[in-house]
Amino acid sequence: MASVVQWIQGTRPRTLPNSIAPVIVGAAAAHHIDEFNVLYTVLALVVSVALQIGVNYANDYSDGIRGTDDNRVGPFRLTGSGAAEPAKVRLAAFISLGIGALAGIALVAMSGYWWMLAFGAVCIAGAWFYTGGKRPYGYAGLGEIAVFLFFGPAAVLGTLYVQSGEITGIGIGSSIAMGSISAAVLVANNLRDIPTDAVSGKRTLAVVLGDKDTRRLYLALVAVPFLIALGMTVRVPYALLGFLAAPVLLPAVRRVAAGRGGRDLIPVLQFTGIAMLAWAVLVSTGLFLD
């Protein structure tokens, strides 16, 4: 029987900045046009984090029963390690996704944007079918695109729109920044797993591109938020604060650029996630100060 600590590990805490950072930026974009709502932001955060945990448990379950995690070099997995029964991991995924759905329904009911129920349904389906179902899109090299869309435009612009009823240039730029660095987290994860994924038949984008081009893709993606911050200074000079996140990212960039592999790439996910959260907080501070 898996321990409480192992179940917490199963949520993949190092990846949670992917769901927190976009909501922070989306809320700041709403504040920039005087439409910030604390309650709506909290509910959006619950939706985002619950779906993130749900997709992590779903990924643990699906990869585990397929045997993808049998010889992994990355962090602990509940199903692949045999610490938890697959059915219980699947139930944990459903519960997490259900919590996200309930928070989303409450948010839609209060905002009155009922069409966003369909938007939420797409997000939940995207979470499950990433590695679930007969033809998971995560096994077809589409994971990075999905992460970009769900943790970029969907999370940032969804948080902005539900509070303001509009989409702004600042919101669009921020969503591209968040989507890019979120995708970089997955790229780093899949870069580490190229050897085992190739053997197990998991055809990720990293497997398709190969080691060298995957590293180039990672470096390009993590540069995007800083280019966006520079562009945002035309409207919001304080957006330059985003560059203070660069030192946090530097250790990850060095490891990837130096050709490190295996377990040496595990910290890259953590550094990239922390840098993403730092960028979101810093740029959001700039938006609040502007």
UniProtKB/TrEMBL annotation:
UniProt xrefs under Gene3D superfamilies: UbiA prenyltransferase
Organism: Lentzea miocenica
Lineage: Bacteria, Bacillati, Actinomycetota, Actinomycetes, Pseudonocardiales
Gene Ontology terms for molecular function: 1,4-dihydroxy-2-naphthoate polyprenyltransferase activity
Catalytic activity: an all-trans-polyprenyl diphosphate + 1,4-dihydroxy-2-naphthoate + H(+) = a 2-demethylmenaquinol + CO2 + diphosphate
EC number: 2.5.1.74
Keywords from the named record: Cell membrane, Membrane, Menaquinone biosynthesis, Transferase, Transmembrane, Transmembrane helix
Stretches that traverse the bilayer: 38-58, 89-107, 113-130, 137-161, 167-188, 217-234, 269-289
Protein name: 1,4-dihydroxy-2-naphthoate octaprenyltransferase
